[in-house]
Predict the structure.
Amino acid sequence: MTIGEQVVLLDDAGNQVGTADKYAVHHDSTPLHLAFSSYVFDGAGRFLLTRRALTKKTWPGVWTNSCCGHPLPGEPVADAVGRRLTDELGLPGPHKLDLVLPAFRYRATMPDGIVENEMCPVYRVVVDTEPDPNPDEVDSIRWVAWTTLLDEISSGALDLSPWSVLQLTDLIPLGDPVDWPVGDPAHLPPVAH
């Protein structure tokens, strides 16, 4: 994370109401802000599972979807996805991105009281290169078959970040990730139009 990096603050309708320092915005009363999540797959259909760096302010050391982040003020969400894939996972673009869940929103509280509170569009990404994770962002990675991931979650062998659990509630009914329908960009938060 860059010191002074700004996040976009939102009202309940998804309109921008200001900006705030990314490092300072996450606390016990985190305001609603814009984010994104991405699910990265390779050409064989394997999913890239990542474990957050142990130094992260929110959910350190937790297994999660491939890459998350915050668009900068004025930055298109898809551009932010590409930027963070490069910065966090060493996956240079161009990336094949598909918007899957344009209107995903969640709020989750860590045991220490820090809150995540985000409008967080979800993207599917297909890559043809191996990741080279930034250790400041990612502790470890695993390529895993989607069905194996679901089996590990249902058996209790894998605990995921709360946002991934909630996203999977919406993604699993969509079937095979290769066949996930592309979401309608009109359903993105207004700030992302």
Observations:
- The chain has four helices and twelve strands.
- The CA atoms of residues 26 and 115 lie 6 Å apart.
- The mean pLDDT is 95.
- The radius of gyration is 16 Å.
